[in-house]
Specification:
alpha/beta; TIM Barrel; single chain; disordered C terminus
Length: 317
């Protein structure tokens, strides 16, 4: 429920939760539960489900809502959960999609910047659409994700300030990949409920020191405990340790880019207690021993450093 006086979302690691599938590409609901527990145990501050990493465009509307409800129920208040309303086109369709997703019990419904309006639409029309969605859902908190698909739409600074000043937005997934842009956005968000969660792992340390609330990106989905540690200790741990973890996370995220998200699932199958298959609807390509060996080597190297703990205790295979 919306409450303008309520606290902002917690700072830290916000994984973009992967969606586990069976070999026939049906949703593996048992592993959805297991992954939710694993992310919470790994120190996630919150969970972003029904995101691009969760293959939201390749899920049916019923699957998206069921997934959000399942994660909310499994999290059981241990961490907040946000999920995307995956609808574009007519304003009423977007309003209805938000209402349906809000009904799953998520803490905030995330709007996709590039679905709110088309690439040729003006910023005024984009804002008018968002305003109509807010007016029609007065008790709902919102997030905003600058998703790169179907096209990438970055919010101009006046729009970011407008979102912050509405008092209705609590989650902003920044995909600008620019610390200068992040700095400006944080300045206009100051004093509001809106938190900026960087999507780019390589600039996480810099953005945290500017005041970012945390990370919502690939790295948080495969090494939530390391991202959580970096978010918690960026200012009080030895600088060499901070730099080492930052570099390690950057390399780990880069290693899964080519066949993501199946590559991330493959890595987790060899580095965690999860029994997740490297199966994807979005990019249904197989990962064999040749492609997977570097991921296994990386997982074993990170494990050998003794950095990964918590969720991974007893989980590496």
């Amino acid at each position: 429920m919306h409450d303008a006086a309520s606290a902002p979302l917690p700072r830290g690691a916000w994984p973009v939760m992967l969606t586990p599938f069976h070999d026939d590409r049906s949703v593996d609901w048992e592993q959805v539960d297991e992954m939710t527990d694993w992310l919470v145990d790994g120190g996630a501050a919150g969970i972003f489900t029904v995101a691009l990493s969760g293959e939201m465009y390749d899920l049916t509307e019923d699957e998206r809502r069921t997934l959000a409800r399942r994660v909310v129920d499994r999290a059981a208040g241990r961490v907040p959960v946000v999920a995307s309303a995956v609808a574009g086109g007519p304003v009423q369709a977007q309003i209805d999609s938000v209402k349906a997703m809000a009904g799953t019990g998520v803490d905030a419904v995330v709007l996709i910047a590039s679905l709110v309006a088309g690439p040729a639409d003006t910023e005024e029309r984009w804002r008018d659409t968002v305003a109509a969605i807010l007016d029609a859902n007065p008790d709902v908190d919102f997030g905003l994700y600058e998703c790169p698909l179907p096209y990438k739409r970055l919010c101009p600074l006046p729009t970011v300030e407008w979102l912050a000043r509405t008092g209705r937005f609590v989650f902003f997934k920044d995909t600008s990949h620019s610390t200068d842009v992040i700095r400006e956005r944080l300045e206009v968000m100051a004093g509001t409920r809106l938190g900026l969660y960087n999507a780019q792992i390589s600039s996480l340390t810099a953005s945290l020191r500017l005041g970012a609330a945390g990370l919502s990106g690939y790295a948080a989905s495969i090494y939530p405990e390391l991202v959580a540690w970096l978010c918690d200790h960026v200012d009080d741990a030895p600088e060499d340790d901070v730099l080492a973890v930052q570099r390690l996370l950057t390399v780990a995220e880069h290693s899964i880019n080519s066949r993501y998200p199946a590559s991330a699932k493959y890595l987790l199958a060899h580095s965690s207690r999860l029994r997740i298959r490297p199966v994807s609807r979005w990019r249904p390509s197989d990962i064999g021993d040749h492609e997977g060996r570097p991921l296994v080597d990386l997982a074993e190297y990170i494990d050998s450093l003794g950095l990964a703990s918590g969720a991974r205790a007893g989980g590496g295979r």
